[in-house]
Structures are given as structure tokens and as C-alpha cells.
Amino acid sequence: YHKVLGIKEPTDDIGELIEQLSKKIGALRQGGEVDADKTLHYFLRSYRNGGFGRLCLDDLDEESVDAFFKNSVLNRPLSKNQDKKAKRAAQRQRSLEKARSKNLL
């Protein structure tokens, strides 16, 4: 992360990180005081936009990952074309069932 953010070296001290990063991005208030809010927003935006690579801070077990993908696939809204196709297929099915009930097929 230090290379991405352009700071000297990795650190476990959040205060030092905020100070170095605020100077790097110019997030200083009047009098040269560190603007921690602006600096942390920058840091989080960088993280969320993938600036540090593909990272995830969530606790992921196999069951929760499977549940997420099942829900995202099953509950995903259809595109306009997919919706049209689904409606046409349903209409064809209703027409076939109606014809079968009248013994036309």
C-alpha cells in the first residue's frame, strides 16, 4: 500500500500514515494542520476502487460465499431483452396449454 499511496514505508501507526498521506495529497488545513477526514476519505476511496489490489476484509466461509452467489444469480433483474423473451415464452406456453385443453394438438 505504501507504494500505491506514495509514502515512504509501511507502518502500523495510523497517525503516521495519516500524516504522511495528508502531506502527499495536500490534505492540510490552514496553518499546515493535517485534515484527517479528507485523508481517510482518500484512503478509503483508493481501497474501494481497487487501488491496493483485489482485497476483501469480510470473513468469508464457503457457505456464505455460496449463499451470496445463489442469491445474486437468482435475484438478478432481467434485461429488457430477457424480460421480453420470458414473456413471449410464457405466452407460447399458455397458448400450447389452451390448444391442448381443446384437443387441437
| Number of helical stretches of at least 4 residues | 5
Distance between the termini: 68 Å
Query: How many beta-strand elements?
Result: 0
How confident overall, as mean pLDDT? 86
Task: Characterize the largest beta sheet: strand count, sense, and whether it forms a barrel.
Answer: none
Which percent range describes the beta-strand content?
under 5%
- In N-to-C order, the SSE pattern is HHHHH
Which structural category do the helix and sheet elements fall into?
mainly alpha
Q: pLDDT below 50 for ≥5 consecutive residues: which ranges?
A: none
Radius of gyration of CA atoms, rounded to a whole number = 27 Å
Helix content: 55-70%
Overall geometry comes to: elongated
List the helices and strands and how they pair.
Blueprint: H1 2-5, H2 14-25, H3 36-48, H4 62-74, H5 80-101
Helix pairs in contact: 2-3
